[in-house]
């Protein structure tokens, strides 16, 4: 019981921080400039980790790899703490479990962005954050929109992407189950 509470707090804190690091990485991949409040929050929260890492990990291809590696290191730390407490899996599996955690966080982030875009489209498509969220989702939705036409004027590509993200999440859970499902 106590471990479950500790794990919940640890997963929440590390997941949110790593999520901001991954958002920083994704914003550079998509080449979208965030609104000022989002930029301030993102950079103030992560600069302490990303700036020193940039000295060691250069940006290759125009991507901020220090942000991605930072998210992986956070996942590695979180997973190592849980393995150390439980000792339910081989310590050598920690690196793979951390990579699976990062992949799960990416899926959770994309799912959250997709839900935000759907809410904006229903409530206020002209909200200040709507174009930013739309720009972050566009690389994921564009290939689906090219395959699936509008149905009666309704764009179902977000529903298809949501389903694909859920399938990917379940597949990752299945893979992580072979290494210790208590850790993910």
Automatic annotation (TrEMBL):
Protein family according to the UniProt entry: Belongs to the YggT family.
Transmembrane keyword on record: yes
PANTHER family: PROTEIN COFACTOR ASSEMBLY OF COMPLEX C SUBUNIT B CCB3, CHLOROPLASTIC-RELATED, YLMG HOMOLOG PROTEIN 2, CHLOROPLASTIC
Origin: domain of life: Bacteria
Entry keyword annotation includes Transmembrane: yes
Protein's recorded name: YggT family protein
Membrane-crossing residue ranges in chain numbering: 6-26, 105-123, 143-165
InterPro entries: CCB3/YggT
Keywords attached to this entry: Membrane, Transmembrane, Transmembrane helix
A Pfam family annotated for this UniProt entry: CCB3_YggT
GO cellular component, one term: membrane
């Amino acid at each position: 019981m106590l471990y479950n509470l500790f794990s919940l707090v640890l997963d929440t804190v590390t997941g949110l921080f790593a999520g901001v690091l991954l958002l920083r990485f994704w914003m550079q991949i998509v080449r979208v400039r965030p609104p000022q409040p989002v930029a301030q929050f993102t950079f103030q929260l992560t600069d302490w980790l990303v700036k020193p890492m940039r000295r060691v990990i250069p940006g290759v291809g125009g991507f901020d790899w220090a942000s991605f590696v930072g998210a992986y290191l956070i996942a590695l730390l979180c997973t190592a703490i849980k393995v150390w407490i439980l000792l339910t899996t081989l310590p050598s599996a920690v690196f793979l479990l951390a990579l699976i955690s990062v992949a799960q966080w990416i899926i959770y982030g994309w799912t959250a962005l997709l839900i935000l875009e759907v809410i904006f489209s229903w409530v206020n498509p002209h909200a200040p954050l709507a174009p930013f969220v739309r720009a972050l989702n566009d690389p994921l939705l564009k290939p689906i929109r090219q395959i699936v036409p509008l149905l009666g004027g309704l764009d179902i590509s977000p529903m298809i992407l949501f389903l694909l993200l859920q399938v990917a999440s379940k597949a990752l859970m299945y893979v992580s189950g072979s290494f210790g499902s208590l850790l993910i």
